[in-house]
Amino acid sequence: MKSKSIHILAIESSCDDTSAAVLRNNTVLSNVVANQDIHAQYGGVVPELASRAHQQNIVPVMQQALAKANITANQLDAIAFTKGPGLMGSLLVGTSFAKSLALALDIPLIAVNHMQAHVLAHFIKDEAQRIPEFPFLCLTISGGHTQILKVEHYNQFKILGETIDDAVGEAFDKSAKIMGLPYPGGPLIDRYAKSGNKKAFKFSEPKTDNPLNFSFSGLKTAILYFLQKEIKKNPNFIEDHKEDICASIQHTIVNILSKRIKLASDQTGITRVAIAGGVSANSEIRATLKSFENTLNWQTYIPKFEYTTDNAAMIGIVGYYKYLQKDFDENDIKATSRLDINA
To answer: DSSP 3-state assignment of 119?
Structure first.
């Protein structure tokens, strides 16, 4: 007997992207994302402006997701949404919308941990990506988080290492800001680095007490002092050496990430290694991890590009596995800006 298909509408609104997706079981039927360009002029996300934009975008994004999936709201079996972590104002928009819709349709409500969703994006059924077996290591890298996780099951995560100050995405964006590049600067560093010499300039790598932990605050300071010193000698230094500076910064950051994930593999004996989160879209990080299949005999898992940045499909896949366990939430569930990976 053929099992019933489960249709889940997922809502993601943790930061500045409003997204809705429809999944049939573990397959994505639609994944719509509305970006907020307004933040570029401020050099970073403005929380109040983000929440206002979510209010404007959430209904049309949801309608578009249903239309692309070719289903109606009455065919949905559950609503999944991001409960945290993230910007509180942004989270409240998605949470309120999801609760209201689930109540109106009289279907289950499923609260999802945003960081779990980044990891479980690897379990979306898609020809463009492989699904890892448990246990595996996951380097979770984004604008707000940097962690090495041992993933033991769909809902079992052990933190082996994490940043003690800034996240890697913040390090990319703030380094770009120091150079005078517009927000978001991380993708621009990646783009310019492709034409640069990654060994042109050397930056020191910060040390941590736990060798699996990360620190990026000192690196940003070192980049700032280096550029200030060179600009005194040549006011056009950044423009004259933009590609080499970007390549050197990116190479240093990727080296920091690589050393720690290799050490985690050595310590655990696990050679199945994945990356997740917005910064996993970075081309050098993806290429470096892929190269470890040959040099270290690893099995590596690199998510499809559209599942790396904040998107509702990743919320939906967590919702699907929680639905199978009947792990539903009451309508009084609250959003929270801070949330542990296992919460």
So the answer is: helix
Q: 217-233 and 242-268 are packed helices; what angle lies between their axes, rounded to 10 degrees?
A: 160
Q: Give the domain ranges of the chain.
A: 7-121+308-324, 133-302
Q: What does the pLDDT look like over 51-103, one tens digit per residue?
A: 898 899 999 999 999 999 999 999 999 999 999 999 999 999 999 999 999 99
Q: How far apart are CA 331 and CA 334, in angstroms?
A: 9
CA geometry: angle 319, 320, 323, nearest 5 deg: 85
pTM: 0.94
The reply to whether 133-302 shares the fold of 7-121+308-324 is: yes
The CATH class of 7-121+308-324 is alpha beta
Nearest-angstrom CA–CA distance, 316 and 12: 9
**Closest to 285 in 3D by CA, of 259, 253, 307, 311:** 253
Query: 40, exposed or middle or buried, with CB in 10 Å at 0-12, 13-18, 19+?
Result: exposed
Task: State pLDDT tens for residues 111-166.
Answer: 999 999 999 999 999 998 999 999 999 999 998 899 999 999 999 999 999 999 99
Task: Quote the pLDDT of residue 178.
Answer: 95
Let me know if domain 133-302 sits in CATH 3.40.718.10: no
Measured CA to CA, the distance from residue 76 to residue 106 in angstroms comes to 10
